[in-house]
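dumping this here so i dont lose it
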């Protein structure tokens, strides 16, 4: 009789455990450390960043578009010639916390060593132990494509002097254990601010606006502070944990880069760690919401008509959506973000929410790129950002055109 699905899964899991155990014995590693290292590598999003589309896991080659050009992730498999197999533990720790490779070359901070320098040494050793067990892949790193003179890595010495924080995680004795664990994950291994914090002209975090949202690869990573209008002020700790675990909650669903983060990282974290992240984020004060100029009546009327024709069937006349099916637009923090890029991106290109074990059917929204003009997209975006009590800056047709051109260019 053929194996059942559960039997096949059990056999595969047993084979994986056996392979890891043999590898750990060969390297003199403790299996528990390797297992913990795998969990920590998931928490650090290592697989997603270091795996190119269609490529082998951890072999690198994934492009990251930045304002300074394209940077490609490195091969971190244990191949001794093209990966990190010949690195010592000290080499690995130096790269992770100082951004310096064994040959003395500097790593670009697109690799989030400014965050990883706050990771405990025992956790770095565990991650290293796990990476020694993955399949080695002989694949040279893809050369970066950066504007002059940023191809000269020696310039990063000055960047580090200016922007690199002191190493080590500093526990707050006036905060709970959950808060400190959440801070460790958000500010260290999880490097949430790498996407969710705006950058200055040198590509460094604007610390004064930490976690208040950042633009990356034609997406806007939303505000994670307690702002009521465009942050997590209306989310409970349970809302945050549910979103990170399952990919959706009563406020919306994870799409775009965040869908990948949920898939490869947060959905694999323990409930205790998800709670800790939620506790920490709920304690992050947000900036006070400023006044927003009221959009022109003509724009709102045009947007309302487009919404009625194209959007209302799913999102409802009052913008309430359908619970756990179609995201609510009324009171939606992402819709009211100071930067409309993600809302425009979803209208133009559509979106597919992440599918997780807890919620295997991810919601989808069709693309309207082919159907609506720049002006029409701007009008309907302005409408949903300012109807039903929402408030956010109006969107110009030029903003839509710029994003449309950018996303088409990156897809070519």
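and the seq i came up w/
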């Amino acid at each position: 009789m053929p194996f059942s699905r559960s039997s096949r899964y059990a056999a595969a899991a047993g084979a994986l455990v056996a392979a890891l155990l043999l590898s750990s014995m060969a390297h003199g590693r403790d299996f528990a450390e390797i297992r913990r290292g795998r969990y920590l590598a998931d928490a650090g999003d290592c697989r997603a960043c270091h795996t190119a589309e269609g490529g082998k896991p951890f072999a690198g080659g994934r492009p990251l578009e930045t304002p300074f050009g394209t940077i490609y992730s490195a091969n971190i498999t244990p191949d001794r010639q093209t990966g990190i197999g010949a690195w010592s533990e000290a080499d690995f720790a130096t790269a992770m916390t100082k951004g310096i490779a064994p040959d003395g070359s500097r790593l670009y901070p697109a690799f989030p060593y400014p965050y990883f320098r706050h990771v405990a040494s025992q956790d770095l050793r565990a991650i290293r132990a796990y990476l020694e067990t993955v399949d080695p892949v002989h694949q040279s790193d893809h050369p970066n494509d950066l504007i002059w003179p940023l191809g000269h890595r020696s310039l990063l010495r000055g960047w580090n002097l200016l922007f690199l924080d002191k190493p080590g995680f500093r526990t707050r004795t006036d905060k709970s254990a959950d808060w400190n664990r959440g801070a460790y994950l958000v500010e260290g291994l999880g490097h949430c601010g790498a996407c969710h914090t705006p950058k200055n002209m040198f590509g460094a975090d604007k610390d004064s606006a930490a976690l208040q949202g950042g633009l990356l690869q034609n997406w806007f990573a939303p505000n994670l502070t307690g702002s009521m209008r465009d942050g997590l002020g209306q989310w409970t700790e349970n809302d945050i944990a549910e979103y990170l675990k399952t990919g959706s909650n009563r406020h919306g669903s994870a799409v775009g880069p965040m869908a990948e983060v949920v898939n490869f990282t947060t959905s694999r974290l323990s409930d205790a760690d998800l709670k800790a992240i939620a506790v920490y984020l709920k304690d992050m004060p947000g900036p006070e919401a400023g006044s927003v100029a009221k959009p022109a009546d003509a724009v709102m009327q045009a947007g309302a008509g487009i919404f009625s024709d194209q959007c209302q069937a799913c999102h409802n006349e009052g913008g309430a959506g359908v619970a756990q099916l179609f995201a609510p637009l009324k009171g939606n923090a992402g819709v009211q973000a100071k930067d409309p890029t993600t809302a425009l991106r979803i209208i133009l290109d559509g979106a597919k929410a992440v599918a997780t074990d807890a919620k295997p059917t991810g919601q989808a929204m069709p693309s309207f790129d082919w159907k609506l003009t720049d002006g029409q997209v701007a009008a309907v975006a302005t409408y949903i950002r300012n109807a039903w009590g929402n408030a956010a800056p109006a969107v110009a047709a030029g903003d839509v055109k710029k994003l449309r051109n950018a996303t088409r260019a990156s897809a070519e």
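The chain has a mean pLDDT of 91.
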